[in-house]
Write a structure and sequence with these properties.
Layout: H1 5-19, E1 26-33, E2 38-45, E3 49-55, H2 64-74, E4 77-82, H3 87-91, E5 99-106, E6 109-119, H4 129-133, H5 138-147, H6 159-169, H7 172-185, H8 192-198
Helix pairs in contact: 5-6
Organism: uncultured Sporomusa sp
InterPro entries: Sce7726-like (IPR047729)
Protein name: Phage-related protein
Length: 204
Amino acid sequence: MLLRDIDIREALRDELSVQFTSSHSIIVDELRICWGDTRVDIAVVNCSLHGYEIKSDRDTLERLPRQAELYNKIFDTVTIVCSQRWVEKVKDKIPDWWGILIPRIDENDQSTINFERERQALPNPHVDLRSLVELTWKDEALAILAKHGLDRGVRSKPRWDIWDRMVDKMDPEELKYAVRECLKSRQGWRTPDSLRRLGVDLRQ
């Protein structure tokens, strides 16, 4: 039986929902990165940013090198979830720090998919901070700068100038934390509550 993307995706999301039950974690489907140049199948945002890329029996690996190039800029850890047929081939196309999960149909229940860990994901040694901050919207980026007293002189600037200020002036770990909190705050999208959490002055 061939495993389809949708089958793997639903099983993986269920697995992640059990694994990450904390209110400090969110699971995001189809997170767009790098100005929408690509999107990761599933992202988990908590104390790190983890991307999951799915390659089913019916997929090809044609786009994987480009996807890997962009994921490597953004995510703290990445796991490729691929059918057994792709395991050896993907190892030649991804960094050694990527994890590998293999989905398998349960022998006793054909409707259940289990996951076998082929390789544990390790920390990304080179997150690109400029690419990371581009995940924020302009008002979110300004709120982050304002919280650190760094927004003076850029409030009316284009967003790329604001992103540059974030990278130039903020501590890398504080910057990563701020972007993650920003993404988690989008559960309510641009509701007053989510903007307050980011520190946006709603009276402006």
